[in-house]
């Protein structure tokens, strides 16, 4: 833990600026690659995005589905650099997409990069349906310019003038999307207002949580992974997957976690799985619903909470719509204030009822009572499952790549937990900043029983030359 | 044969056939259970297994709720009707113990936070464990809440929701608004002997009644409930065999579609028909010109259903029991007009439907000498902008040899009139009303396992004001459909 913290502090110290400024561009580096998920003992080939800290594939983390949580302020330029490392199980097979991928964000138009027309499209060459047929005119393959396998980093630019709209978005592959999105090339994108805590104009929020619904058709993935996909100029169309038209989902994911058990037992490895921490009960919590599933999902609040729908595909409604249910079609987003909820667990069931591999599809958003720092908390049942809900309020702006260090003590030993606050950041009134984090505790338990408890003794901001404590109790 | 004699013949024939196909008058309203105790309502429910029948002859294994003491479960569960502000208590016993796939069951109501006591802890709420035999060993769970706001809601099991919703464990909850009172069937205003039994149906000004869905501005004349579901019977067969995981592994593919637990044309029958003991609720809808129907829809299937209202648009008032209004009083000013209600799984929609002869251009009552012009929409009256009073249909009507017929065709295009029909035709239209199909606009859902017609389909009948004998034709409404659970 200590070593990891040091690493992150060094990285943070190398950040260009302590304070985020309007001029600062947001840059992300994503590597698109094949990986494998194991669900219920079944290994499934996926394509996913791995986040890298620099244009160097040696800095990339593990790929995930959905991809990493990306965000930017509403006044920033944003670059996403994509490195195409997509492969198949049979590496000798050639990608039928011409070895290409790309990235786009519906609702946020791409900007041209130099002379490259960013918004595409890219066409296939002329082709024939079958040997002997007349060639057809070229057909579109990519909606954006392509990142070609093995060709290094490809830049995609969103200019602030083109994307002034804060809100909830999805990024996904713009190349042969019927195939590549289904394979897992999608992820959450959030545009946040810099100057206020408003999710949308006139809608201030204290905290926001994301629920990302998606699905897997394991047979489809197996075929794609075997090279039986895309355009095959010589092959038999009957054995080549040109699209998911014969789609039968076999697994359902919520925030990338298979909905495999009831009740859900969040683990240290999956702190943002089906149990999700919202704002304090007295605060305003925004739920950002996203779906990259091919079927429609309908989350319904089961315990009396009202979902006050304020936006759809990142565009605000003129008047909020109070409902218990949210219609979530394929590749759309919806935003709802979780109101009239319980203090504690608020359950959302998926009324589309496509559970298949589980009895689940259920999300639980926890609205804890109002916490203060330092917080004394008796943490569940032991070190293996110990978790601490931490909310930090400060009057200091945090720049990108700065970490919050929470020092948690149960007497002896002392454990530091480090996290990047920005994805969890909201700006309160009066210049107060707030960070929420579900902290996985280290191995230095027990945290409960025998009269012991956990006390957060300090919260520090790291980055720059010194650490300091910026606590507003 | 004179037209009048033909009319009599048709009515007699209609009575003979209609007795088996239509029991319309018994189903005009929302049938449900109330508790007359002031300020509170208590219901004892049981969950048990049983069977339903489908019009193609199918028999399907189900799980359903019923009021304790009923001889069988029902699909959907009993409609519960309470008043705003009531302290509602639902006591649930689980009688699934002898079933191969027995599971715990529970109760949740999206829109209300239920306090649950007893039973065992489940993922979402407290659950009742299955009891065997005569269920005397059941340990009930008590769910209580304050019905703080009016509207249309759905209660359902909060346990293994994918399986148990499909199996039928849900029902409607209707919360009447504060100050609500039924307008009785006989309470027709402005009756004037000088102008006939009904003076001016358009003078049924909403302001004079407290029969409203949410508050002043949402008044209605009749209310009906439409619980829309879809079904893959293979799941039911697997659950009957205890193979829950096998049921989950299926690719869901519905072949049956229901309104109020019945597949068309069983939806036309009245409530509580003896040969469908587990499907007590009909869906035939009746109204008269100028009146309004409160359409309460609940979608409990897996996929979206476009519920199409023939005859006119409906104006959506509320979603999930939330009035579409940004104001503390008045009508649902944010409501919107649709000819097809998008029924979203788990969602409830309330809409107001009206039908009149406005803009018809001809007189739907045929003969201006026998009815007052006040029977028409004001715009259709003499001097109105779309005057229709006294105007015959401005085209020649085709001869019988150029027509095809159905059971609902009275032989006349005029409301309350009958005309000549070939032998064996017609006969299902007792009052000479206008029939409009209300159905899923996804036409593949108008079958019962591939047999057309059927599925998610029912009828609206716009009835005339007078019956066959010239007397007032009253469509029942009010509290006659409500059964008090507290004797």
Q: Could you list the spans of chain A in which at least 5 consecutive residues all have pLDDT below 50?
A: 1-22, 260-274, 369-389, 410-414, 423-433, 440-455, 462-473
How far the N terminus sits from the C terminus of chain A, by CA atoms, comes to: 26 Å
Q: What would you report as the Rg of chain B, rounded to the nearest angstrom? A: 23 Å
- How helix-rich are the residues of chain A, as a percent range? under 10%
Class from helix and strand fractions of chain B: mainly beta
Strand content of chain A: 35-45%
The oligomerization state is heterodimer
Secondary-structure element order of chain B, as H and E? HEEEEEEEEEEHEEHHEEEEEEEEEEEE
Count of beta strands of chain A = 32
How would the global form of chain A be characterised?
globular
Poorly predicted regions of chain B are 1-26, 189-198
Number of helices of chain A: 3
Q: How much helix, percentage-wise, in residues of chain B?
A: under 10%
Class inferred from helices and paired strands of chain A: mainly beta
